[in-house]
Design brief:
16 helices, disordered N terminus, 2 strands, mainly alpha, 438 residues
Length: 438
């Protein structure tokens, strides 16, 4: 017949056969043998241990931690390593720190961690299995970032050398490093180990280097890129004023002397070139009528045919300044005598030069005396110079008397005896050949 022992309280027999006092951690169970033993069954002891030490049981099942990864600890009976009843001060863990292989745990010691003593990580008041495994748990006090970068230290640091950071993948942040930014040291942008809520605008780092003194605003990327700060690459063709000709070579500050994004620029020529206007405003403000932005001095585009004085004949080859003296263009006189002094006729034929002359050549003149003056020149009259009859300078009218006597009074051999109808006897071909008619 099998003998049964009550679970509690401890019987006299149990006290008699107990090898010795329990360790301090198990002392509370000393009066309850059934907590760790079943009568006449050694194999059941391990299951009772795991019923109490549930964390060890879970590690064995999941094959993690020392009791789940170390081959012997995962399979053999607990009492092979952990024996009790050796007194209150007995060490039932029996850990040999010199030979313990940390690779059998969830946290393998590599590189710099191999030289760290156990007590630096395993505090006497904390169970070995509950020792912290995160970097920040041990290095919080020496964190130069003061928690600004969170607690995932291994993102930048490795166990090889704490101060030698590994390549941080900045592409996973809100500001991927491109171009010249890739070669910039972290501390250049993250001054004072500040990493959280860093501004991504150019001026947040380059404000002191802004040669424009913020006159062009804060959108630096409009003209500059991250590869090379110079030269600028602003596409002016996308604005309302594309740069052409000589304008493409002008420095930005030459036109944008104020705040480029605050002050709207006037795009008329005179807004920039008023001081250089040789016409002094006489021709208005539509400079593009005559000039372009390639070479405003040498290439004049003005179409004179659109004015009241089209340039024809020899006038087309005359320089502007020849007629527009002192660069006077507005209300320029168009009469011939204002440009051409009458040194030949000396005013005898009035100022209406166009009556006889054309712009094709000053010497090429023609006047139809019959049609235009209603007085046909015949005989010797046709060979006379104009000034022979038109001898008076600046006459009130060019119309002369057409009777013979008005011109030939002084040559009248008859002294007026035969009257003034000279044509009764004389002709225009030869006045000495008489042809008197009764």
């Amino acid at each position: 017949m099998a003998m049964t022992i009550s679970a509690a309280p401890q019987t006299v027999l149990e006290r008699m056969i107990m090898p010795g006092p329990l360790a301090l951690s198990h002392a509370k169970y000393e009066g309850d043998c059934a907590k760790c033993h079943r009568p006449f069954s050694r194999q059941s002891q391990t299951s009772l241990c795991l019923d109490c030490h549930t964390e060890i049981s879970a590690d064995r099942s999941a094959e993690r931690g020392f009791h789940g990864r170390q081959v012997e600890a995962a399979k053999q009976e607990c009492n092979r390593c952990h024996t009790d009843h050796k007194g209150r001060q007995a060490d039932i863990v029996s850990l040999d720190r010199e030979t313990f292989d940390h690779d059998d745990t969830n946290y393998q010691l590599v590189d710099a961690h191999r030289s760290v003593t156990c007590v630096q990580c395993h505090l006497s008041t904390v169970a070995f299995r509950k020792a912290p495994s995160r970097c920040i748990d041990c290095h919080r006090q020496i964190d130069p970032h003061r928690g600004a970068l969170g607690e995932v230290c291994d993102t930048c640091h490795s166990v090889s050398a704490w101060h030698q950071t590994r390549t941080f993948d900045h592409t996973k942040t809100k500001f991927p490093l491109e171009g010249a930014h890739r070669d910039v040291g972290c501390a250049t942008c993250h001054v004072g180990q500040v990493y959280k809520d860093i501004s991504h605008t150019c001026v947040s780092c380059h404000r002191l280097q802004d040669v424009h003194a913020q006159r062009y605003g804060n959108a630096c990327e409009t003209c500059h890129d991250q590869t090379r700060f110079k030269p600028a690459h602003f596409d002016h063709d996308k604005t309302k004023y594309p740069l052409r000709g000589a304008h493409a070579k002008v420095a930005c500050d030459a036109c944008h002397i104020g705040f480029i994004y605050r002050d709207k620029l006037n795009t008329t020529c005179v807004s920039c070139h008023r001081r250089n206007d040789p016409h002094q405003g006489q021709l208005g403000q539509r400079c593009q009528t005559c000039h372009d932005d390639v070479d405003w001095q040498k290439k004049i585009l003005f179409d004179h045919d659109l004015t009241r004085f089209p340039l024809i004949g020899l006038h087309a080859s005359v320089l502007c300044e020849e007629c527009h003296r002192n660069l006077t263009f507005k209300n320029t006189p168009i009469l011939c005598e204002r440009c051409h002094q009458d040194s030949h006729h000396q005013g005898r034929l009035s100022a209406r030069c166009a009556t006889c002359h054309t712009p094709n050549g000053w010497a090429r003149w023609q006047f139809d005396h019959t049609r235009q003056a209603n007085y046909a020149l015949t005989g010797a009259h046709a060979k006379l110079a104009c000034e022979t009859c038109h001898a008076t300078r600046n006459p009130p009218t060019l119309r002369l008397a057409t009777d013979c006597y008005s011109c030939h009074r002084r040559a009248d051999a008859h002294s007026g005896s035969f009257g003034r109808s000279c044509e009764r006897c004389h002709g225009t071909s030869n006045w000495r050949a008489l042809k008197f008619r009764t």
